[in-house]
Design a protein that fits this description.
Helix content is 0%, strand content 25%. With 75 residues, it is mainly beta. It has a domain at 20-46 and 58-68.
Length: 75
């Protein structure tokens, strides 16, 4: 889970961009920190880069496919 020390360096954003799930391997719509919806692994993505592909990490049986959710936006 993403954490922070200084709240003053973050601002609340209730935008719907945090609601969408993104498939593995697609270009990330926003730079920031993404979390795998199934296992909780987090990655940081720069502007214009693709999210890690299937096979980036493995899931236990029953966890489902890799899907990424934006949890901290840089924009």
């Amino acid at each position: 889970m993403a954490t922070y020390k200084f709240l003053r360096m973050l601002s609340l954003d209730s935008s719907s961009k945090f609601d969408d799930l993104h498939d593995a391997g697609v270009v990330a719509p926003y730079p920031g920190i993404y979390r795998c919806e199934e296992c909780g692994r987090e990655i940081a993505i720069a502007n214009g880069l693709a999210l890690p592909p299937e096979g980036h990490h493995s899931h236990a049986l029953g966890q489902g496919r890799i899907r990424w959710r934006l949890v901290v936006s840089h924009t």
